[in-house]
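tool_call: predict_structure(chain=1)
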Amino acid sequence: MISTGPLTRERALRDGLSIAGLISVIWFWSQGWPTLGYDAYAYWHVDPVSPYHYRGAPDELGAFRYSPAAAQVFGLINWLPWPAFYWLLVGCLFVALVFVGRWWVVALLGYPPVLYSIWLGNIDILIAAAIVAGFRWPAAWAFVLLTKVTPGVGVLWFAVRREWPNLLKAVGVTLTIAAVSFLILPRPWIDWPVALATIRSDGQASDIPLILRVGSAAAVVVWGARTDRRWSVIVAAFLADPQFSLRALAILVGVFPLIRATQPGAAASAGVTASRSPSSLT
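tool_result:
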């Protein structure tokens, strides 16, 4: 007799979505869209000594807006030929997707923003992976704070829950990296705030000021911290993304492992085991 339990249904869902994911990959990559590596090009093109003196428009090809520390890290590998650099980055993004999705990784490729983000070579999936890892290794938050910055609002989780050692690690490692970077090249740190001010959102989301989105993201984190919902930090990171767009939706892949991690805690806090009352979990 064939089992039709929850585990079997979950595997059937995963396998079905994985087929859809493979079809999506084949279709997406067959289109030959001209925007291949659009965002990654900025990481490859950046000059660590003068990362923000780009003569193009603020969001044109090659414009770099991450911290000087990030520019210095990219400077260690952007001597590679462009194709090698891009595919190395894609490989890192795929590893991050495996870390987040595990056996669901192919199914997650069927989520259009994921493929779009990888196609562009953006670090959205790395941001999601860093946030997921940050609950266990708070130092991972340095990656978020020194790249996209505003999704770092998620560190409020530690403050609301009074997890002071974790907050200290997250902020301390970030400041240490920034301090070392400043000692190496101080001038870019003076130019960076001006570069950040030139960032604009894409599409209709440009009508929503970043400060309002960051405020909303902070509220989501506070709510999530008080109700033990780790996935709320991923949602907050998406809301606070500097460029609120279809691509930024790729960050939401981080919800996948955190919902699973949240469920046992939610059940325990309610004094109910998952096996006794699965419908009570959120």
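agent: Residues 78 and 85 are 7 Å apart (CA to CA). Proceeding to next step.
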